[in-house]
């Protein structure tokens, strides 16, 4: 049976949910590179980080804070640590007003795997006025991946479209068994 993979994202339709701010350093300062957590490689930051609740609501087990940075409850983090220890970095984060432990989930693998023929992609062109972006993905919809490129990875970001967090079917099943709130899955 072929392995299945899913884009894991924030279920923004979850009723009365909270919304989190972008993580800050343990001293409360903004990071110079705000998207470093989504580049598909380990980051060099010292935790615990700080996250504010921008909009009060139900705490979730999986949330994307500012810039789509995954913030996970310790019960979700334990699944990633057990099933994909080579694929993730978990950084402690204090979420304002929460006694429970949360962590920033960093996918540490970047894999060139987007199936451009099976996905709906649009590339930046020189006509878009951003010559440094020409030839790179401007959008990727209905993403499909070349599973042969993934190897043994269970968590990764696709090269060129790092905004997507991809997890294996095994990770999805474990999260669903655990009843993780806030997670949405779309097969890729």
Descriptive report:
The structure is a single chain. The protein is mainly beta. It has one domain (5-110, 154-187). It is built from two helices and 14 strands. Strands 9-12-13-1-14 form a five-stranded mixed sheet. Strands 3-7-8-6-5 form a five-stranded mixed sheet. Helix 1 (74-83) runs antiparallel to helix 2 (169-178). It is globular.
Brief description of this entry?
With 188 residues, this protein is mainly beta. The chain has one domain.
- Helix content class: 10-25%
The largest sheet is: 5 strands, mixed
* Total beta-strand segments: 14
- Rg over CA atoms, rounded to whole Å, is 17 Å
- How far apart are the first and last residues' alpha carbons, in Å? 16 Å
Which residues form runs of ≥5 with pLDDT under 50? none
- In percent, how much strand structure appears in the residues? 25-35%
Principal-axes shape call: globular
Distinct helical segment count: 2
Element pattern in H and E:
EEEEEEHEEEEEEEHE
The average pLDDT is 95
Q: Structurally, how many domains make up the residues? A: 1
Structural class: mainly beta
Please list the strands of the largest sheet in the order they lie side by side.
Answer: 9-12-13-1-14
Pfam families: Imm11 (PF07791)
Domain Immunity MXAN-0049 protein: 98-188
InterPro entries: Imm11 (IPR012433)
Protein name: Immunity MXAN-0049 protein domain-containing protein
